[in-house]
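Protein modeling request. Please complete all fields; requests missing the sequence field cannot be processed.
Requester role: graduate student
Desired output: 3D structure, token encoding
Chains: 1
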Amino acid sequence: VPMAADESPRRIQLMVEQSVMRLCITNERLNGVECISVEQALADDSDDYQPVLVNPQSPVYINFSSGTSGEPKGIECLQQGIIRLVEQPDYVNLNPQTRMMCAAPATFDAFTLEFWGPLLNGGQVCFMTQPQMDIAGLRHLIQHQGVNTAWLTAALFHTLVDLDATAFAGLEQLLVGGDVVSPEHVRRVYQAVANIQIINGY
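Delivered output (202 residues):
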């Protein structure tokens, strides 16, 4: 169950109760849950961990949305769902040469594509570590970490294009979705950047 650090205590408690959480990797304390730090989890002997048998219907994780009532609503993300999303997809090219930017928080559904997409196809994940993306951060990932594939929401894509359409130089594939994508903004990127493919993910 991915949880954001800035979640309210009440929402976290509801997520803990709904998911029947028993263990959490965190430096915080949660009521009724055994908590271990990241450092402790990495330091533990791997022989202490037992393998888990899974099948296509086994959940990988539970993601919580706001729900129509505003209360957290747990959604199981299954093994077969992730495989269907990223195994030999026909909407984007994912392979061992893929270096994909991961800018979405783990609590956001786009994280599934940004994280598992490259990893399950032999590629690499390149994390955006700053809290908010800007032109400088995008350029740094492309130029210094070799990012060649990225996903952006339509709103963020439009904003970045308005600021500087050349910021996408070096990307080979750019998926844009979450809302209607402006053809004018797409055209401006194609005029400013060579050898880029923009994919409508809406």
